[in-house]
Amino acid sequence: MLLWKVGVKNVLSISEQDFKQFAQFVKSNYGIHFADEKKALIEGRLGNTLMRMNFSSLQEYMSYVTADKTGKAASDMLDRITTNYTFFLREPAHFHYFREVVLPYLAKTVKDKDLRIWSAACSSGEEAYTLAMIMDEFFGPAKNEWDTKILASDISEGMLLTSKTGIYSEEKIRNLPERRKKRYFKKMDNGDYILTERIRNEVIFSKINLMETPFPFRKKMHVIFCRNVMIYFDNETKDQLAERLYDVTEPGGFLFIGHSEGLNRDKTRYKYVMPAVYRKE
């Protein structure tokens, strides 16, 4: 049952029972954990949607989400209850390590010149495109000899559509060096910036739920960026995801997670390298 708080615009009040059912639904399907204290957050973020669509209960909304076979309703729900905030060169130490350590290692050891890099939970694409620019700079003219296409995935169809355009505001690209802005972006009439087609073509976007088993690819990855997504998971789910990522990592490959995250070193098979960087030996 939903009750609207009198005098507070577009804010609903969800019963404890309804919230627990919703939290279990989201965790079971998407791995996202909402503790009891997050009830107010869900009330605030779903209020407009439930009112606009005239749902009489949170259960009715969940039924609508599960009945929509296109996945759009689930994608819209996830966009509302999670945060997709990101920008170019977020947590720059990772990209420095990727350029100075990881790529030289892979350039020497990957004999078939097929680099497999996965930007999991790619949000609006900045991470994947940054990796593409770094590899373009690193390999230079020799890049034509390599397959450097990046798999970028997210559970949100809206984020994937945004990513594919390669269009970003000036604020989003402000941390990039001027040389990269000039080389890889073109300013549009409205003041936004669009990536060159060459870099856009280096990224393959796909909808992937990190909870699905198995992952929808056959070859193992040399590098996985799975940053700032485990913050939504409880410890058990995070441990399980880390083990599944390990299984699809090539020996010698790397896992990057967010600096606000961490793996349980007593449980994970990954070896700690530096803050938020792990390796499969």
In short:
With 281 residues, the protein is α/β, with parallel strands linked by helices. It has 10 helices and 12 strands.
Assign the CATH topology of the largest domain: Rossmann fold
Largest sheet: 7 strands, mixed
What is the ordering of alpha helices and beta strands?
EEHHHHHEHEHEHEEHEEHEEE
Q: Superfamily at the CATH H level of the largest domain?
A: Vaccinia Virus protein VP39
Helix content: 40-55%
Question: Quick check: average pLDDT?
Answer: 90
Return the structural class: alpha/beta
Strand order of the largest sheet: 8-4-3-9-10-12-11
Output the keywords.
disordered N terminus; three-stranded antiparallel β-sheet; globular; 2 domains; alpha/beta; Chemotaxis Receptor Methyltransferase Cher, domain 1; 281 residues; 17% strand; Rossmann fold
Model description:
With 281 residues, the protein is of the alpha/beta class. It folds into two domains: 2-81, Chemotaxis Receptor Methyltransferase Cher, domain 1 (Orthogonal Bundle); 92-279, Vaccinia Virus protein VP39 (Rossmann fold, 3-Layer(aba) Sandwich), CATH 3.40.50.150. Helix content is 41%, strand content 17%. It contains ten helices and twelve strands. It has helices at residues 16-30, 39-52, 58-67, 72-81, 92-109, 126-139, 157-165, 178-184, 197-200, 235-247; strands at residues 2-4, 12-14, 117-119, 150-154, 167-168, 185-187, 193-195, 203-207, 221-225, 249-256, 271-274, 277-279. The strands form three sheets. The chain has a seven-stranded mixed beta sheet with strand order 8-4-3-9-10-12-11. The protein has a three-stranded antiparallel beta sheet with strand order 5-7-6. Strand 6 and strand 7 form a beta hairpin. Helix 5 crosses helix 6. The termini are far apart.
